[in-house]
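Feature request, filed as a ticket because there's no other form

It would be nice if the structure record came with a short human-readable summary line next to the tokens. Right now we just get the raw output. Example of a typical job, pasted below so the devs can see what we mean:
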Amino acid sequence: MTANALQIEGLTAGLGELQILNGIDLTVPFGEVHALMGPNGSGKSTLAHVLTGHEDYEASGSALVDGTQIIGLSVDERAQAGLFQAFQYPVVLPGISLEQLSNAMEDVSEDPDVEERAEAAADQLQMEPFMDRYVNVGLSGGEKKRSEMYQLAVAAPKVAILDEIDSGLDVDAVRAVAEMVESLRSPERGVLVITHYSRILRHMTADRVHVMIDGRIVESGGREIAERLEAEGYKQK
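Raw output as currently delivered:
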């Protein structure tokens, strides 16, 4: 295991002739939770898509997950390297129950502790009422995010990219999701939380906050950055 869960250097990406990422440098060490903030259209979600291998984007540069270069790998190879993404709009899987999905993850995992981890996560996140229901079908926004956090806990990735997981949630649900993220903090995992707002950061500890503007990281620092952006907006950058 390297010192860094995720290390990005000189990452560029675009859609055809439209350049979106313009040389991203970003490091998330193991055991830390980092926040990536920025206005609409700054490239935050594009970064998540590029890291997880969305086929529409052409990317160059370097992105290492625990020292493994993932640029150029297939989506499943990136997952096997230890990368996980939670979505702003979680995918609905009619016909597949959360229990079946969990069992499938257990079947493909070589981790002897995965079954015990799944049981502990189900208890902690109070998932029992949802285990025999189709994944995310008929669930509220907060329940879908709980389902995502359960899947993350079972998968136990080295790097978790959480793309606007606070989107569309009420105050109580934001707090609950933040607490879930904190509960998944581990010396064997790095977490990157992508968000527009500082409200989720009020309920969790972000070891570092990064600001993205026009496809570049323009500032990195402590939580005071998020508080300033909340008061002043991105137009000050």
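Something like this underneath would help us a lot:
The first strand starts at residue 4 and ends at 15.
The chain is about 30% helix and 30% strand.
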